[in-house]
């Protein structure tokens, strides 16, 4: 959780901000909670392409577990929420460029990301999984070096697959990944287990999971810009209260079908 993480990352944060095209350093940034409260609105970002966690419905509304969590956090902070969708591979850059105030988009907490942003949470956990079509003949992770591997651009799974030297194809989001697997343009896809299983089950798409993948649980957190302990604390307090009074479980049951803390 944020209160257990160091907030002293000035050099790395300043470098990231320069890359994002900003002319200031982390030290010069004011605490943002006061500014957000003055506006009465917190802007949260997500890809909008990660069902059932976040996606665009037939009414062109961004819905799912992530926007529901973000909206409830905002409500408990006395704020309205503005949901912004953006490409996943540039979502941290957009946060650092002040295009929104937080990322509530199922972002895995990693050491690399924690060098340039701060995290609230985690607000759920999942695991990496490798999926293929039934009858594909692919039954083991040891075979992945000889097949086409589909991943979402900018996700931690892309880095994992490339580090292992796999033949990787990147896509914009989970719906495109599932289509490519179904059409046989990739042999396997790598994704967070919960999201992929739920999405394929919803579609009626048959799948098989490689059961010999060794992976740790992955925590998803809410990313905010560094140097904002008041904002982090307020968001964490809202999240904790949701988990304590049953609201979190109700949201999780609605969108995921289970408590995924």
Automatic annotation (TrEMBL):
InterPro entries: Solute-binding_3/MltF_N, TAT_signal. Residues 41-259 form the Solute-binding protein family 3/N-terminal domain. It holds the Pfam family SBP_bac_3. Transmembrane segments: none annotated. Keywords: Signal. Residues 1-30 form the signal peptide. It comes from Antarcticimicrobium luteum. It comes from the Bacteria. This is Transporter substrate-binding domain-containing protein.
């Amino acid at each position: 959780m944020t209160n257990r993480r160091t907030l002293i990352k000035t050099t790395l944060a300043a470098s990231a901000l320069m890359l994002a095209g900003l002319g200031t350093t982390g030290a010069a940034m004011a605490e943002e909670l006061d500014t957000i409260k003055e506006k009465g609105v917190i802007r949260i970002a997500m890809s909008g392409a990660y069902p059932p966690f976040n996606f665009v419905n037939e009414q062109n509304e961004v819905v799912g577990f992530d926007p529901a969590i973000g909206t409830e956090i905002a409500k408990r902070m006395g704020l309205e929420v503005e949901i912004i969708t953006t490409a996943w591979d540039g979502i941290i850059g957009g946060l650092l460029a002040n295009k929104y105030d937080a990322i509530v988009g199922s972002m895995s907490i990693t050491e690399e990301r924690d060098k340039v942003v701060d995290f609230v949470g985690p607000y759920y956990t999942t695991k990496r999984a490798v999926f293929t079509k039934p009858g594909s003949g692919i039954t083991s992770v040891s075979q992945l070096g000889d097949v086409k591997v589909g991943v979402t651009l900018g996700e931690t799974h892309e880095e994992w697959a490339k580090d292992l030297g796999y033949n990787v194809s990147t896509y914009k989001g989970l719906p495109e990944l599932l289509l490519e697997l179904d059409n046989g343009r990739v042999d396997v896809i790598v994704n967070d287990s919960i999201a992929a299983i739920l999405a394929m089950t919803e579609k009626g798409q048959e799948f098989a999971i490689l059961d010999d993948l060794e992976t740790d649980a992955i925590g998803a957190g809410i990313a905010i810009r560094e140097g904002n302990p008041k904002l982090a604390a307020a968001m964490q307090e809202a999240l904790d209260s949701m988990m304590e009074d049953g609201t979190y479980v109700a949201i999780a049951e609605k969108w995921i079908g289970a408590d995924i803390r």
